[in-house]
Amino acid sequence: MPELLTYRNKRDPARTPEPVPGAGKRTTKRKSKRDTFVVQEHHATALHWDFRLERDGVLVSWAVPKGLPLDPDVNHLAVHTEDHPLEYAAFEGEIPKGEYGGGAVTIWDHGTYECEKWSEREVKVVLHGERVTGRYVLFKTGSRDRDWMMHRMDPPPADYTPMPSLIRPMLAVLREEVPRDDDKFAYEFKWDGVRAIVYVDGGRPRVLSRNDRDVTVSYPELRAMAESLGSRQLVLDGEIVAMDERGRPSFEALQARMHVTNAAQVRRLATQVPATFLAFDVLHLDGRSLLDEPYTERRRILESLNLSGPSWQTPPHFEGSGEAILAASKEQGLEGVLAKRLDSRYHAGKRSDCWLKVKNLRTQEVVIGGWKPGEGRRKGAIGSLLLGVPGTDGLDYVGHVGTGFTDAMLRELESMLSPLERTEPPFATAIPRPHAKDAHWVEPQIVGEVAFGEWTKAGILRHPAWRGLRPDKDPAEVTRES
Fold first, then answer.
1. 161 within a domain of the structure (yes/no)
2. In a shared domain, residues 323 and 386
3. 144 and 265 together in one domain
4. 248 confidence band (pLDDT: 50, 70, 90)
5. Most exposed of 299, 333, 439, 466 (fewest Cβ within 10 Å)?
6. Do residue 120 and residue 247 come from a single domain?
7. Phi and psi for 234 in degrees, rounded to 5?
């Protein structure tokens, strides 16, 4: 039949398990007012959902990249494709790689529909499915036959909450030891990476750093995780880490990935320094906000998602036994532990003592306020950095660091600091004269991190060593770790 000519021309029945009716075969037109609809999840080159409506003996079809919208305030792209045979409504299987539409096809939903309007530019239907019900309209948006959008005309399903575009991470309070009321806390290892909130919608990730920067392009590993979740809509809180040669999270190793946005360079680095996302909290799931749920319920839901793949994991948590978990973290060379109250809600964007961090390694985020030239091999280049932490009257001077740098780090710092040169120091507190001599001052815009031994009584870092840049932090966010 003419309607299926395009379909048949794109498929070889000897090479694909899809139904391919012969050129002379016709399907008897159904007389029911409620014709069949089907939605098939299609893991092709790009994940999408194929929406098909029975009409005049064929399945009229659209490819919907993000699935059927549940929120009437959000329309989804729907690409009009070739008509399919009615037999396709029951098709599930693997289309061989290299064939048209190669990839796995599964039935996501099916049922019947009532047609309210059908024209060349607009199709209005009422769906009666197992997963989706309600009134939808598909409408043409351009001159090309394939340019359509899909809109839900009914209100969202009962108790549906749209996925927020921004949830700021909850922050922990530093403590010297684990809490004494041990039985009220769960413990997680503290991972030496960068915090990330990951939004997954329509099998596609959006990754935001702690300072709301979109870093999706920097971590393509998360695309596979998002696609594995199919049509699920969720927001995850976690840490992006890179491993050293001993298989332990290494902030130094991750430095190579943190600043790169060029797609070709990212692909190359992803093979050299692979990143892993460790999901330790879930904040929104399938139209339901979880911010007010206690930690124990959020953790139960998180583990039910079975997030486990080549570059994503759900790390373990332990209820009670904080001293033993802290000792284990130290033995394994980890940064420390996080203690989280079992009954605590998620305090988005706030630092709360419902979460406590206990470190094995003392670290401090710092703002670079200047640099001093080096000597010997570093003569004329950066020898040390002059550091500050925001205080009540401005940027407090907290010392200088001249160790822990690689040559690559120094070159990167020089390129970042050169455009920020200024004539006066940016510090509000006094700088020891030897430290200020021959110094080059810069605008306090770059954040880094140092490891150190202790604070002196004068508020200066003792024995600091450079760990790396923190592009995920803004200068105003930096606070002194006591």
1. no
2. no
3. no
4. confident
5. 333
6. no
7. -155, 165
pTM: 0.87
**pLDDT per residue over 257-292, tens digit each?**
988 889 899 999 999 999 999 999 999 999 999 999
pLDDT tier for residue 390 given thresholds of 50, 70 and 90: very high
Q: What is the pLDDT of residue 115?
A: 96
- Residue 447 maps to which CATH number? 2.40.50.140
- Residue 157 falls inside a structural domain: no
Give dist(CA 214, CA 212) in Å, integer.
6
Can you say whether the dihedral through the CA atoms of 262, 268, 272, 277 is positive or negative? positive
Query: CA neighbours within 13 Å on the CB side: how many for 77?
Result: 10
What does the pLDDT look like over 130-172, one tens digit per residue? 999 999 999 999 888 899 999 999 999 989 999 999 999 999 9
Those residues whose C-beta lies under 8 Å from the C-beta of residue 69, and which sit 6 or more positions away, are 75, 76, 150, 151, 152
390 in the same domain as 262: no
Report the percent of the chain where pLDDT is more than 90: 83
481, 377 Cβ separation under 8 angstroms: no
Residue 482 within any structural domain of the chain: no
Options 140, 190, 340, 359, the catalytic residue: 190
Q: Give how many domains the chain has, as a whole number.
A: 3
Structural domain contains residue 453: yes
For residues 290 and 369, membership in a common domain is answered with no
Task: Report the alpha-carbon distance of residue 139 to residue 249 in Å, rounded.
Answer: 49
How far is CA 211 from its chain centroid?
A: 13
Range of the domain at 98: 2-152
Q: Say if CB 86 and CB 27 are below 8 A apart.
A: yes
